[in-house]
Write a structure and sequence with these properties.
Elements: H1 3-22, H2 26-57, H3 88-105, H4 112-121, E1 134-135, H5 138-151, H6 153-157, E2 159-161, E3 167-175, E4 192-199, E5 202-211, H7 212-215, H8 219-244, H9 262-268, E6 275-278, H10 284-292, E7 301-304, H11 306-311, E8 325-327, E9 335-337, E10 340-344, E11 353-356, E12 361-376, E13 381-394, E14 400-405
Parallel strand pairs: 2-12, 6-14, 7-10
Antiparallel strand pairs: 1-12, 3-4, 5-13, 7-11, 8-9, 9-10, 11-14, 12-13
Helix pairs in contact: 1-2, 3-4, 5-8
C-alpha cells in the first residue's frame, strides 16, 4: 500500500466513523476507529521497513550545495564502478581525506600518505602556508546539510543552486491572460512582464569553540560532534536568511548584505496584500484568508514555531468545540489543519504563520563551506570558523502569504 492508497483508505474509514457517531452508533464507530489505528500501525511499519531497506542500500540523497560532494552507493557494476559512475578509488580517497581533515583539526600528526591526500584536496592551502582554510570533506558536509534540513523544514525545501559569481534570478511580475479568437480576428501579442534580482553572494561565517581536552576525543567521535555544532550554527543562519533576511541595503541604509527573506519581501510590498492579521488569537477565518492569498498551483504548507502551533493554531475550534488542527505526522509535518500540512520551524517569528511553497524560494551558493581554525593558547581552546558565500530571494511572492498579530510590525527574530 502506497501513501496515496493509505490516505484514501484512512479518509474513507474516518468519514464512516464520523457518520456513525452522528447517528448515535458509538460501538460501531469505535470499531471503525480501531480499524483506523490498525491501518496507521500497518502503514507506519511498512514505511519504516522501506526506509530501513533504503538505508541498507546506502544510496543516500545528495544535498545540491555540495557540488563536489556526491554520496557513494555500494551498488557496483561489473567494472568496479558505482552506479552513478563514481570510481571506488575516488570514494576511498575521499574517506582518507576525511580522516586527514579530522586529524588536521585536532592538531595530530599526519602520515605521509594523509599529508599527500590533504594537499591534493587543498592545493592552495598546504600546511606550510599561512592560509589555513580547508575544504570540508564531502561526507562531513553531507551530514551537516542533512542535519540542517531536519531542523528547518522551510529551508530544507527551498530550491538550491551552486553557481559561481553573480546569478540573476528572473522573476515573473505579471502575464497577459490567454484569450480565444475568431478565425478572422488578429491575435494580440502576449504581454509578460519580468523583474530580476541579482544573487551576488553574502558572506556567512560562524565559529564554534572547542577546549583542547575535548579536541583529544577519538576521530569517530570528533567528526559527528563537529557536524552537529556546525549544523546548528550554519543552519540557524541559513534558515534565518531564507525567511527573515534583510536583503541588500539601500542607498540610505547601512547593514551587512543578507539573503532576502520571504517574510521581509512580503512586508516590503505596497499595501502588504499577502499579510493577514489577527488581534488576540487567530480564527478559522484567519486561516482560510491566509490560504486564499496563495495563488492556485502552488503548495500551501504552514510553517510556525512549536509554541505558535500548539498555543494558537491548535486552539482554533469549530462550532462544536472540536479543533481544526489534527495531529498527524504521516505527511511529514506535526499535524494538519483544513487539509494542509503544518511544519514546526523555529526560523518563523513568534506568533506568525508562513504559508506557501518553499520551492519558490531560490538559494544560490557561490562558495562551498570551508573551515579555518585559530588556537587560543592562553585559554587552551580552539575556534573552528566555517565560511561560505550564499544569497537567496523568493522567485515569486504569489506562492506565499503571512499571518501575524496586528501589533507585530517588522517580525524579525534575533539570529
Amino acid at each position: 500500500m502506497n501513501r496515496e492508497q493509505y490516505l484514501q483508505a484512512r479518509k474513507e474509514k474516518y468519514d464512516k466513523a464520523n457518520t456513525l457517531l452522528e447517528e448515535g452508533k458509538v460501538d460501531e464507530a469505535n470499531a471503525i476507529m480501531d480499524e483506523i489505528k490498525n491501518l496507521d500501525e500497518t502503514f507506519e511499519k511498512t514505511a519504516k521497513a522501506v526506509a530501513n531497506l533504503s538505508a541498507l542500500s546506502n544510496n543516500r540523497a545528495v544535498h545540491p550545495i555540495a557540488s563536489a560532494v556526491v554520496s557513494p552507493s555500494t551498488k557496483s557494476n561489473e567494472t568496479g564502478n558505482t552506479e552513478d559512475g563514481e570510481d571506488k578509488a575516488i570514494v576511498a580517497k575521499e574517506k582518507k581525506y576525511t580522516v586527514a581533515w579530522a586529524k588536521r583539526l585536532q592538531n595530530k600528526k599526519l602520515t605521509d600518505e594523509e599529508l599527500n591526500v590533504f594537499n591534493e584536496f587543498n592545493p592552495k592551502n598546504e600546511l606550510n602556508t599561512g592560509n589555513t582554510q580547508i575544504l570540508i570533506p564531502k561526507f562531513v558536509a553531507n551530514g551537516i546539510w542533512e542535519k540542517i534540513s531536519e531542523m528547518y523544514p522551510f529551508y530544507n525545501k527551498v530550491s538550491k543552486l551552486n553557481i559561481k559569481g553573480t546569478f540573476e534570478l528572473i522573476k515573473e511580475d505579471s502575464s497577459s491572460e490567454a484569450e480565444w479568437y475568431l478565425e478572422e480576428d488578429e491575435t494580440e501579442d502576449g504581454d509578460e512582464k519580468f523583474a530580476s534580482y541579482q544573487l551576488s553572494g553574502c558572506e556567512l561565517s560562524r565559529a564554534i569553540r572547542v577546549s583542547w581536552k575535548l579536541r583529544e576525543m577519538a576521530i569517530e567521535d570528533f567528526i559527528p560532534y563537529i557536524q552537529r555544532k556546525l549544523a546548528k550554527k550554519m543552519g540557524k543562519a541559513l534558515a534565518h536568511g531564507s525567511v527573515n533576511g534583510k536583503g541588500k541595503p539601500g542607498s540610505d541604509e547601512t547593514f551587512k548584505p543578507e539573503p532576502l527573506g520571504v517574510i521581509t519581501a512580503i512586508q516590503k510590498e505596497k499595501d502588504t496584500p499577502r499579510i493577514i492579521t489577527f488581534s488576540k488569537t487567530p480564527t478559522y477565518e484567519s486561516i482560510t484568508s491566509l490560504l486564499s492569498k496563495v495563488k492556485t498551483g502552488y503548495k500551501t504548507e504552514l510553517y510556525a514555531t512549536r509554541e505558535t502551533i500548539f498555543t494558537k493554531i491548535a486552539n482554533i475550534l469549530d462550532k462544536t468545540g472540536k479543533p481544526y488542527f489534527v495531529t498527524d505526522t504521516t505527511q511529514g509535518g506535526v499535524g494538519i489543519v483544513l487539509g494542509h500540512v503544518v511544519q514546526e520551524d523555529d526560523s518563523i517569528p513568534a506568533d506568525c504563520v508562513l504559508c506557501g511553497d518553499a520551492e519558490e524560494y531560490q538559494m544560490n551558493f557561490n562558495k562551498n563551506i570551508t573551515l579555518d581554525q585559530e588556537d587560543l593558547k592562553k585559554k587552551r581552546k580552539t575556534d573552528y570558523i566555517a565560511y561560505a558565500i550564499a544569497d537567496g530571494a523568493p522567485i515569486t511572492l504569489d506562492a506565499f502569504s503571512l499571518l501575524k498579530p496586528e501589533t507585530a510590525a517588522e517580525t524579525t527574530p534575533t539570529k
